[in-house]
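Lecture 7, part 2: worked example. A protein chain together with BIS(adenosine)-5'-pentaphosphate.
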Amino acid sequence: MVLLGPPGCGKGTQAKILIETYGIPQIATGDILREALSQKNPLGLEAQTYMDKGLLVPDHLVIKIIEGRLQKGDCAGGFILDGFPRTLGQAEALETTLAAMNQQIEHVLSIEVEEGELIRRLTGRRICRKCGESYHLIFNPPRQEGQCDSCRGELYQRDDDKEETIKKRLNVYQAQTAPLISFYQKKGAVRSISGAGSIDAIKQKIERALSS
Ligand code: AP5
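Predicted complex, written out as structure tokens:
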């Protein structure tokens, strides 16, 4: 399954719900790159220069990550791609990789949210340093300010969640990622879902779309 949609539409939030329902892994390239950065390994340091500016990391780097990740045993029964593919080059590379594995994308969900709401969601997002759980100061606040409900880790704001960088990321989405909707439409695989409403309401819309 591929989750498509602009930054802040709720891909990560819904992917975490879907992995519980279907028992398949979430593969989030943004999380993998941030993890590489926190370990200060060469991939992370190279990616940082792009991420800090709100730009996409070059295709060859992310394609390599995905090719390696899809070979792992936990992907044999399916997987949820969150934040990949993001360019036509990535989408085409994914087709080739999956064909070689005798697999294919069965569902593409495009989550649509208007820009003002995306900016509100991203500027208010806070993430746990320890377990990666995502919160929102207003829409999904932790029980105790600044502290993760699950593991009591410290909550922080992503560097690219500052308003100026968010606008850049939204422009990059329109220019480089939105064309993937018609790429997958031509294959008859896309369902568009309005991402407006509560997290639970979107979860229900996704469940309906997947079962129809
Ligand atoms: P990445 O980490 O993938 O960021 P993104 O796509 O910009 O998506 P986000 O994680 O910001 O948003 P989301 O849709 O997951 O929303 P979330 O559920 O958290 O990528 C970061 C960077 O890495 C990129 O800019 C690029 O540099 C690089 N990168 C990653 N993948 C790449 C690739 N394939 N190729 C090249 N470069 C790549 O929700 C947001 C907030 O809203 C949260 O606070 C949440 O609690 C809240 N919320 C969620 N749903 C709702 C709701 N229904 N109502 C109210 N609030 C809600």
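The pocket of BIS(adenosine)-5'-pentaphosphate is lined by residues 5, 7-13, 29-30, 33, 50-51, 54-57, 62, 83-84, 86, 90, 121-122, 125, 134-136, 139-140, 160, 169, 197-199, 202 (CB under 6 Å). The chain has a mean pLDDT of 95. Keep this in mind for problem set question 3.
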